[in-house]
Model the fold of this input.
Amino acid sequence: MRVLLADSGWLATDASTLSDEDDLYAAGLTSHGSVNLMLALEERYGVEFPENLLRRRTFESIAAIRAAVAGLLDGAPGGTGAG
Amino acid sequence: MRAAVPDGPAAMPPEGAAGVAAVAGRHADSVDREARFPVEAFAALREARLLGLMVPRDFGGGGGGLADAAAVAHALAQKCPSSGLIYAMHQIQVACLVRHGQVSAWHRGFLERLAGEQLLLASATTEAGIGGDVRSSACAVGDEPGGAFRLEKQATVISYGAQADAILVTARRSADSPPSDQVIVPVLRGQTQLEEIGGWDTLGMRGTHSVGYRLVAEAGREQILPLPYADISARTMLPVTHILWSSVWLGIATDAVARAAAFIRAEARKRPGTPPPGARRLAEATAGLQSMRGMVRGALARFEEVADDPDRLTAPGFAVAMNTLKTEAAETVLRIVGQAMLAGGLAAYRNDSPYSLCRHLRDAHSAPLMINNDRILGNTANLLLAHRDNGSLFG
Done:
């Protein structure tokens, strides 16, 4: 997850220095960036984010993103277990 | 906020709105000609206590909802679009304070002053050097000793800045924050120095005086709204802006169609039994007006439905709905005024006729430009990469 964030250029901060709970929006994530982050996660993990997960809170920290992706991989539609 | 019922009878404009709109109408030509602030309309709005319309009654305000503010903006815009737009911009700031300021003591006190003194609020969100993206700031609220801050912003536009009693300014949260980590803070007239940059000699909306300023403010940190601007923008400023601006454009379209209809009726009276040549264009313009009214009332109802649910307010589907209201309403008002002008013919084209639509046409041309449609369409295109429309009729 940190590699994906670091490679993306969506943060103004070095992703390797962030804790799981740090606020990604305070680290420079924009709403435009969060859409691209979602697309990268969908591609990487073979999942699809349903509309009810597409809210600001879902992408507010590494821990929140990890929980959302884990939930999708655990059998939500589109969670094929890839990656 | 009170719910709007999209298919029910139209909400009655709040008491006093018609009288204030009449005052605005009497001075509309001079406001337009001289490109000056509509002082008479705003004196009347203060007198009718309509600047504090959306402030809850507990704070001494009118306790109205967004539908009430939209009704006033719409009524004003039929007579003087500059007055309507200034009123809309003021109420956008009020909505942000009402919805996000009640958790803090300073802002509760400010809401009381707002209602008691009928303060006029402006906004400074755009900034030189950030390419017109209101979700980015270069300036920051610096830390000063004793809980104060100093802020210096090269604001590319502050509409009616010189007349405002307070200005809501966006800035980075701290000197170390990235451009997107913003806060918003109301700064009062006595705390702010404004140095005007450039002039405002435009085609339309000439009374809004939307010029640039170098703004320097020194104020207390307790004035900063506690919620990040990203949330305030998504939950309130963006939807309320698009709904209130669209209500203003709907007002322009409404009066254009009314003038065209009056012209066609006068022609029909002269030659009973022979339909005037512009009558079909009037029918076309009326169809457009009906559709535009539906758009605005539908968006109001949608906002009221989710107004207290942060998750639904920040979902891409909601932002797509509000963005598309703005771009489509801005296109539609131009089309309607054009059709009304064809209905009225030369009587509409003349500056000196009671059926003139020249000011309507000039003011309507601001709609796709004053918040640029292309920028909003670009944002919408990005949101559509995430949004999955569920295909249902009622959302």
